[in-house]
Design brief:
This protein is an all-alpha fold. It has six helices and two strands, in the order H-E-H-H-H-H-E-H.
Length: 151
């Protein structure tokens, strides 16, 4: 139950942060020079090559922020859903990211970037790995506690 509540709160946060938040000028009107990236690794490479010029914060938020912001999705989705496999979490992480990026493309809020699709999906996958490790630890401790009680 707690996992489902956290999942719903996280989805609300994602929708607000990625679509409605004032970060990165999302509410700026009149984006005549709207940009999008359809070349995989183009923006990742650019941010890495020019990290001294764009600054650590911009480089970190673009490269690692996109991964970190989707890690809770990969963690909470198996708790809140009947789809608990790594493959389904990867699929739904990509699907959510594609929805966000497509919304940004259509509404010209933010920028459509295939690199963000990749980084967000990696974040969902990393979140699932954390979930799987924690679930395995919980099962191990539970088995160990039952064994200790039997002795």
């Amino acid at each position: 139950m707690l996992g489902k509540v956290c999942f719903v709160l996280y989805i609300g946060f994602i929708i607000y942060f990625l679509i409605f938040s004032d970060w990165y000028g999302r509410t700026t009107t009149g984006m005549e020079d709207y940009r999008y990236n359809l070349v995989l690794f183009k923006e990742i490479k650019r941010f890495w090559e020019y990290r001294d010029h764009v600054g650590f914060f911009a480089m970190f938020t673009n490269l690692f922020g996109n991964v970190l912001i989707f890690m809770p999705f990969g963690f909470f989705m198996p708790m809140a859903s009947k789809y608990r496999s790594f493959l389904s979490t990867t699929f739904w992480s990509f699907g959510l990211s594609l929805c966000v990026e497509t919304f940004q493309l259509v509404t010209k809020v933010g920028c459509f970037d295939v690199d963000d699709l990749l980084l967000n999906t990696i974040g969902g996958m990393a979140g699932y790995i954390v979930f799987a490790v924690m679930a395995a630890l919980r099962r191990y401790r539970s088995r160990r506690a039952r064994t200790m009680r039997k002795q």
